[in-house]
Amino acid sequence: MDATHRVVLITGASRGIGRATAVMLGERGAAVGVNYVRDLAAAEQTAAEVERAGGRAVLLQGDVADEQAVLAMFDGLEAAFGRIDALVNNAGIVAPSLPLAQMDATRLKRMFDVNVFGAYLCAREAARRMSLDRGGNGGAIVNVSSAASRLGSPNEYVDYAGSKAAVDTMTIGLAKELGPRGIRVNAVRPGLIETDIHASGGQPQRAAVLGAQTPLGRPGTAEEVAQAIVWLLGSAASYVQGALLDVSGGR
Ligand code: NAD
């Protein structure tokens, strides 16, 4: 991707796949909005790595499940860089591995608030600002879904899997709705990727253990997912629309 002068907002960019994507875009000269919730020091590290790589960065605090925070985040990006060209809907959560019968309502609601409602809110704001028919310049959205959306994740994360299935469906719908308005919309579906998200699920070794059972025999890295995201954002993928791209080692 020639991201020179491109302005990209990445949600949940303080670590993991979001950070790897931010740095890769920085290497290509992009201006990156680094969204984070609480972990300011980690977000500052992402921003520093983006700038060291040759890009520009602005820190944008905000919970994607909070509408006012999302509006402020997009306003902040445009205040810093004057426009928006792309969104990476990356922020996401898991919760401790449990069968559905043991999940409480607070957990279920938060899962959908962050992974679905947050992704829809951010996509909506991107559509409002990038659509050709609203005075925008067009652009690209990449949603970070999960292989769980087609596997279902029984006995551990059926809530998470369902939330990511909603992200897949949103991707297909928005690809059709926003394509005529100059916006490409696609998703990546990572498999078992070595990031800190597995600790929040109470299974820090999950990626290593289950990754070894994939056809490629290992877990993936955040950088391998970032490569796919950056490709989907860029002109090399100019005719790719509504794709759900598995980055799962064949899982
Ligand atoms: P991670 O936990 O390292 O990163 C998730 C990021 O999202 C963090 O920076 C976190 O602070 C942020 N975040 C969480 N809630 C937020 C909120 N309400 N508002 C804004 N930011 C918020 O994990 P990761 O593996 O890098 O995950 C990135 C994306 O990839 C997620 O959507 C996740 O579901 C997806 N994914 C990961 C894997 C994997 O194996 N690691 C597999 C499939 C999909």
UniProtKB/TrEMBL annotation:
Alphabetized SMART domains for the sequence: PKS_KR
Enzymatic class: oxidoreductase
Keywords: Oxidoreductase
GO molecular function: glucose 1-dehydrogenase [NAD(P)+] activity
Keyword presence, Oxidoreductase: yes
Short name of one Pfam family: adh_short_C2
Enzyme Commission no: 1.1.1.47
InterPro entries in UniProt: KR_dom (IPR057326), NAD(P)-bd_dom_sf (IPR036291), Sc_DH/Rdtase_CS (IPR020904), SDR_fam (IPR002347)
Domain Ketoreductase, residue spans: 6-183
SUPFAM superfamilies according to UniProt: NAD(P)-binding Rossmann-fold domains
Entry similarity comment: Belongs to the short-chain dehydrogenases/reductases (SDR) family.
Protein name from the UniProt record: NAD(P)-dependent oxidoreductase
Organism (species): Trinickia soli
Upper lineage: Bacteria, Pseudomonadati, Pseudomonadota, Betaproteobacteria, Burkholderiales
